[in-house]
Amino acid sequence: MPKKVNKKKLIKKMDDLFSKIIRSQGECDKCGKTKSLQCSHVVSRRHLQTRWDLDNAIPLCYRCHIHWQHKEPHEFVRWFDDKYGGKLYDELKRRANKIGKIDYEGKYEMLKQIYESL
User: Fold this and answer.
1) Are 24 and 74 in contact (CB under 8 A)?
2) Which of 32, 56, 75, 115 is disulfide-compatible with 50, CB 3.0–4.6 A?
């Protein structure tokens, strides 16, 4: 009989791996700083369908993440559209609202492979 997976622990591991993958890009996507990088989700991470989608996160320094993206979300979306071609945000919103079962173990293995290849 397969071992039962603790979903909360697996989600925490996935969040940690995902953040490391995004921050490994090495600089803030907005200002270019290399210190205090954070994993910034474009569409809120509460949407599990896109929480670990590599298209749905960018590295931002603390200042750009907290004092710009979170305080000026409309400005952020306009900037994101300009930088990434205008259709990606709409596509991410569509993916985020998609209904379906999530293969947590499969996503974890995928993230682990990506991280190990860095």
Assistant:
1) no
2) 56
Q: Which amino acid would we find at residue 12?
A: K
- Helices and strands (H and E) in the chain: how many: 5, 2
DSSP three-state, residue 46: coil
Please, is 7 exposed, middle or buried when counting C-beta atoms within 10 Å of its C-beta (0-12, 13-18, 19+)? Answer: exposed
- Helical segments of 65-117, H only: 73-84, 88-96, 104-116
Per-residue pLDDT tens, the chain, 118 aa: give them: 456 679 999 999 999 999 999 999 999 999 999 999 999 999 999 999 999 999 999 999 999 999 999 999 999 999 999 999 889 999 999 999 999 999 999 999 999 999 999 9
Between CA 48 and CA 34 the distance in angstroms is 28
| 86 Rama sector, left if φ>0, alpha if ψ -120 to 50, beta otherwise | left
